[in-house]
Amino acid sequence: MKQYEITFLTIEELKNPAVDGPTPEIIESLSGKIVSASSLGRKQLVYKVEKQSEAYFSTIVFEISEEKVAELNRKLNLKEEILRHLIVATKKSKGALPKISKKVEEELAPEKQVKEEKVEEAKSEIEKETKVKAPKVTKTPAKPKKAVEPEIDEEERLKTLDEKLNELLKE
Q1: Spatial separation of the C-alpha atoms in residues 122 and 53, rounded to whole Å
Q2: Rg of the Cα trace of the chain?
Q3: Nearest-CA neighbor of 72 among 165, 147, 2?
Q4: Which of 81, 67, 60 is nearest to 5 (CA)?
Q5: pLDDT tens-digit profile of 77-135?
Q6: How many helices (H) and strands (E) would you count in the chain?
Q7: Which of 9, 34, 47, 127 is buried most deeply by CB count within 10 Å?
């Protein structure tokens, strides 16, 4: 038996996906075994699925023979309360990740040392270049400029405005 994970969207909330709902019943009817189940709760959908804008997400990890996965998929497609589902094959977890052996670590040590030396060389070259190419530049503060206002006679300005107004009124 191979281990699979199914994530599905339902219209109604399932408090315990391993017990509630149609999926566990179908898995067990196909002689599958449920390993774990969890409910992710109600989520807003990015786009409507069967006229629904929100759905309840649930995930079940189960074991079933490879031949029966297609039949499980077909039966889930027929259930109206399941909006969408996705079945993915997973690897059975057997504890923590393996540690790197000392032998492998010793083989990698010279490569690591060479890389560190190259990094130090590059840093020193950059420092040399920046010392040579960076002349000091001093700036003198700029003097504030006085705002120059054009001297226009008030009477002339009013006459031109009156003329423009008269032209607009004639039109």
Answers
A1: 55
A2: 38
A3: 2
A4: 60
A5: 888 888 889 999 988 655 434 444 555 455 555 655 666 777 777 777 777 666 655 55
A6: 4, 4
A7: 9
CA 19 to chain centre: 32
Count of beta carbons in the 10 Å neighbourhood of residue 37: 20
Angle between helices 69-78 and 22-29 (to 10 degrees): 150
For the chain, give the percent of residues with pLDDT over 90.
11
Q: Where are the domains of the chain?
A: 2-88
Superfamily the domain 2-88 falls into: Ribosomal protein S6/Translation elongation factor EF1B (3.30.70.60)
Pairing of strands 52-64, 82-89: unpaired
Beta bridge partners of 56: 10, 42
- How far apart (Å, rounded) are the C-alpha atoms in residues 89 and 6? 9
Phi, psi of 76 (to 5 degrees): -70, -35
Residue 63's Cβ-count burial label (10 Å; 0-12, 13-18, 19+) is middle
In degrees, rounded to 5, the angle at the alpha carbon of residue 95 between the alpha carbons of residues 90 and 96 is 105
H or E element in which residue 161 lies = helix 154-170
